Prior knowledge:
This protein is an all-alpha fold. The protein folds into two domains: 1-44; 46-76. Helices cover 93% and strands 0% of the residues. It is built from two helices and no strands. The longest helix has 42 residues, at 2-43. It is rod-shaped and about 105 Å long.
Amino acid sequence: MEAIISAAVAAIAGLAALTTRINNRITDLDHRVDGVELRIAENYVPRSELAVEMAKIENHMIRIEQKIDQLTISRS
């Protein structure tokens, strides 16, 4: 009878240790995912801001293109 009780206590202790270890790993993974989400949120650019910046870049590119065209035409 003592052997059965000892085995049961050992099995319960083993399951408790395993459960604790799994929960710790899940918690660690949760913290890592939170960190990734935070980095994504910090680096996120709203679409409206991106559109404004892209318009600025496009305007600069058009001006450069026009200057190149003027240089090409004047040398011809």
